[in-house]
Fold this protein.
Amino acid sequence: MTNGLRTTALLWLVVCVAPAEAQGFRITGSSLAYYFELRPVAEDSIPDSLTTGSGLVRQSTVGLVSCPPGQTRCYFYRSLDRTYTVPLTQDVEVTGWGLGQGVSMYAHIRANANAGGAEELWTRENDRFIALAAYVEVDRDRWTARAGRQWLTSQLGVNNFDGASLALRATRRITVEGYAGSSLIQGLSEPPTSSELAAADVLPPDVRGIVLGGTVRWRPAPRFAFGAEYQRVIRSDRAGFYSDRLAVDAVFIARGISFIADAQADFATHALNELRVRASRPLWHRVEAGVETVHSTPFFPLWTIWGVFSPVGFNEARADARWRSENDNVSIALSGGYRRYQNTHTGVGFLPLRDDGWTAIASGSWQLGPAWETWGSYRRDIGFGASSSDGDVGIRWSGIDRVSLGATGSVLQNIYEFRVASGYVAGASVDAALPLTSEIRLVAQAGVYRQIAANTPSTTMNWSQRRALIRLDWSVGSDPGMSALRSVKGARQP
């Protein structure tokens, strides 16, 4: 039996032995079925005698190909037959309270399956059963304790672990929390479509770690707050450690200006991963503006090889402004930034590498009436080795009882200077939501996306990808928040 299953079984034991008359439960679930079409590619090659020109990139009978120096063959990627996958995901969350004085429990279980197609195309599809959280909590006036599988969200990310945490409210202005346990893979609580998972290393550590950490929160005045967190993850065999990090943040308000500062440091590599200072304030005619400066260097735990390549960071200056109409029906937001990368100590004198980049973003929404809303956004990002631009527009009708119907159109273009490919993707999707009962809601979405490639081999096909999903959200049991609200309303009746 895994640690997650043991913890879940312990929680149900606590539930069963607690006094029945004091208990309350709420179970919520989300049942999802996806459909994705994909077109894999395979590496192929032709003799360099079939190409024209010289250098790394050449023309050929199949289009542009890559010809490494000193080799007699040139390489390209060839499109394979279209395939698909139909992953299924079932999330169940259980909340129980009234199990004793200040005692409650929480569990979040996820099950994965496949209803057809290629299983290996979906992230963590082979993890049939995952306990994302399963803990018992005891809440008192001066302290709160948790035991079991849990997570902490902070500047250091979402950290899942099996263990215990204790938060002490030392005074009205100071809170101290400590936690320890067996660390789990980072990003365990991320949804299946998370970009964090897409960027994750596919090689997790072969030895689990022991996470030790603590946080302190201090609010000496209503307009000032400070926080800090220290965390170290050690190999379970104590042969070394995976990370050793510190994060601090502060908020200060003076003369209507809000100042926010935060920083993250990696003691293991002596790197300052993040340093951000922001100032914002309301201006005139419902306009709010802000400026900030950022230093960022990628963080990699010591178990991954990527840190060996000494990733460089960048410094960036950003500005943004937002405006809302007096009746809040119209909103517009503009933002932009310019960044400069640190010296990579690579490249050649006659072909210097780009060391700067910029970003521009515009978005807006318009409430056409009580039931109609439309929106749009555009983003342009130019950086070292790549550029991207994307835009989308949409409209949604929302009726009574949470009924809605919407449509979205989008265009995406990525250009990678170090790959022989460019083009864009255009797509459209429709979505609808329909409550079947007061506790059951059905959501459906379907879309088609057309890839138009340019400067690619003729064997790389333009094609349309179809996507669809159906989600059923349901719940069983009373909602303690709604019950309390109804009690308050009842008490106010004459």
Q: What stands out?
A: The first helix runs from residue 3 to 17. The chain has three helices and 27 strands. Residues 1-5, 12-21, 196-200, 484-494 have pLDDT under 50 and may be disordered. The two ends are 56 Å apart (CA to CA).
